[in-house]
Every structure is written in C-alpha cells, then in structure tokens.
Specification:
Structural class: mainly beta
Number of helices: 1
Oligomer: single chain
Strand content: 35-45%
Largest sheet: 7 strands, parallel
Order of helices and strands: EEEEEEEEEEEEEEEEEEEH
Distance between the termini: 42 Å
C-alpha cells in the first residue's frame, strides 16, 4: 500500500500551557479513497495534557504499532472521523471511558490492539456516541466500530455504547430510544432557561 504521508518513529510530547489540550490533533483532513496517512511506531504522550490524540472531521488515517497514553481527561477522542485503522497499537488507559468515539464517526477498526488499564475493575475502555457540542439537535449514531484480535486488561470492559450501532464485540449498551427520549425531554425543559449552556450535554453518561 502506498501512503501520501508517512510519519515513523516520532515521539509526540505535551507542550506546557494554561489550558490542557490534546498532545496531537488531526483536524479537517479530508482525503479521497486510497489516499492514506500512516503513523508508524510513534508514541503519543499526554502527561498533564487533556489527552494524547484528537481526530476531528478527518479520514483515511492508519496508526501502526503506535502507543497512546491517557491524559488528565482521556486518551483518544474521535469526532466525525471515518476510515481510521489502529493496527497493533497499545493504549495505556488510566481511568474510565478514556477513548471517546462520537458525532457520527464510522468505520473505525482496532486490529491486534492491546488495551492496558490502571483504573478500577469494571471500567470501560471507550464510550461510543456521547453527547458533544456538534450534536445540538439530532444525534447521529456512531457505527461500524470493529475489533479484531484485540486484548483488554483484566477487569476492563470494551465499551459503553450510549448512541451507536452495536459493535462486533460484546459490551454494555444503553437503548438509543431511551437515550434520545431522555435528552429530548431535557432539551425541552432546559431550553426555557436562557442561562443554560449547551455544554451541559457534553457528558451524557447514563
């Protein structure tokens, strides 16, 4: 396979600033089919940053044998992302739902990945379909999240699906109908209060 861009063996480290950010962000990288970016054997550190990787409105990205670390809030976030492959990557998670896939992201595949965990038993590696700022009216579901030959640390569950089409491995799911109904009613009630910020929907964990 040919790649339009290749980044190999790089270590991405946090930059000190007052507001915690993601160590590495891929934003608005829309590419035609077959035009891929490859990250090979890279390390994405987070330390005191918000997280190590953020992918927003981008597609056709491959991470091969890369290592990701959780930050203050999460490890990896993907919004409106599609055709993303994590191949034999390692995710070092330090808490609950450290990988967030949201806002109609689709065709995200984890192949041969290892999910390590230093949090509490019973926590989930990722959350699929949480409320984000882009989802003010309609909740487009997350879909085609695929796991193949992946391993999860003992006591770590794969995911909580809040608004998504069920992935190909077993996890915990909340009915889409129930989620939509609860937040439809919440918006109707809270919208009457002008001081309410829509950010309150950012974390929709039921």
């Amino acid at each position: 396979m040919l790649y339009s861009e290749q980044i190999a063996g790089e270590s991405f480290c946090p930059i000190s600033c007052n507001t915690p950010l993601f160590t590495f962000e891929i934003l608005n990288e829309i590419r035609p089919g077959g035009d891929n970016i490859l990250f090979s054997e890279c390390i994405f550190n987070a330390d005191k940053n918000k997280g190590s990787l953020n992918i927003n409105n981008s597609n056709n990205i491959i991470f091969k044998k890369c290592t990701f670390f959780s930050g203050l809030e999460k490890c990896v976030e993907m919004s409106r992302a599609r055709d993303i492959l994590f191949n034999e990557c390692i995710f070092n998670l330090n808490g609950n739902r450290q990988i967030s896939i949201n806002c109609a992201s689709n065709s995200i595949k984890f192949f041969g990945c290892n999910f390590l965990h230093t949090g509490k038993s019973g926590e989930q590696a990722m959350i699929l379909g949480p409320w984000v700022e882009e989802d003010k009216v309609w909740r487009p579901p997350v879909s085609r999240i695929l796991f193949e030959r992946c391993s999860f640390a003992e006591g770590l569950l794969p995911y909580l699906a809040v608004r998504s089409i069920k992935p190909n491995v077993e996890g915990k799911s909340v009915s889409n109908f129930i989620v939509d109904l609860v937040w439809y009613l919440a918006r109707k009630i809270l919208r009457k209060k002008p001081e309410v910020d829509y950010n309150i929907y950012e974390h929709e964990y039921l």
